[in-house]
Sequence to fold (427 residues):
Amino acid sequence: MASIRIFQPNKHLRGAIALERSKSISNRVLIIRELTDRAFPVDRLSNSSDTQTLLQLLDQVRTQGAQGGSPLSLDAGAGGTTFRFLTAFLAFHPGEQLLTGNERFRERPVGPLVDALRQLGARIEYLGREGFPPLRIGAPDWDAYQPRVSLSASVSSQFISALLLVGPSLPEGLLLELEDTVVSKPYIDMTLAAMRYFGVAVQFEDREIKVPAGSYVGRPFEVEADWSAASYFYAFAALSESCDLFLEGLRADSWQGDAALAKRLEAFGVQTSFEKKGVRLTKSNHSHLPFTEWDFLPTPDLAQTISVLCAARGIHGLFSGLETLRIKETDRIAALKEELKKVDVRLIALPPRMSLRSGKVYFNQEGQARWEEQPVFSTYGDHRMAMAFSILAFLGPVRIENPGVVAKSYPGFWKDLEKLGFEILSS
Fold:
């Protein structure tokens, strides 16, 4: 298997990085654009494989789906939003389509979304295991349509966002009632912000979201930089001896929940200054943080970054809100446990009695990363595992397997590290 050796010999971080743009925002805007009467320009669309795949599949539906004949076959690869947003979009589209994903994605549940779409009149069949891809999606049965739908919010916010995005195109709109604990709420808020930007007066009160019937209003749009991508550079800054790093494209008024990094990483010694075209990171050497508690329920994409940063600094971590990590590109909890063991750091689930008062499931992380022989980190087909464990290159040379997996969200990641003086050798 291909791998890279990566090391950062210079502990003084200097430079400027044009960050990858947000694939989460890009994918939402692509679906909205497909549902408007007229196309509108989208500037700085994400280069991630997830976004580029969605772009290609929407074009395929537009050009080939209208030809009739046999069902149109579409492969979303490993993209979560790509597959789930397309499922909802195709459910109310003419014709018949077959929608699948890669091997790992066919193990990720889609049942709650399909059940909700069926309540709205969608005709969807499972072609394999019940509740999982691949899917056969036919033209909707509008006689069965009714606008009120209930959906558990505890599995994936992507199910909710998929429904919301198509809501305005339904005959009487959508009334979505959320059940159970809401996970990754900032991603729902991102969807609502995008819908409002394009002219839909959606309302979110208590646990009910009202989407009026109507149409989106196209207007030019520029995608902001990705705060999840920024998290790795914040971690590098936290490990540096000094830092003057400019990250282009980040905004103070971001739609992204991961923008909470700017405030939270102050405790790790990283100062954020918002400038006209991005943010500037500097380092305070007065941070001696021995312990941190972090609930990742609103921001699950930060979990691996913060876990590995704590390992690098020897910070004792008490983590919660990791529930959704088991159904990502890999079981991220199991993957973190296995890879952290290679550098003498332990991540363990605490007994259920620790959760009685809060209702949260806690994980305890202890130890400071150290090694005698160069560690080789597996990435499990998960882009965030590859990028998160690159953080340890600040401590010494490490090897990352399957480095190309970063293309899912940040194709230029390794080249950007080289700009900052990281030594990267392929093998």
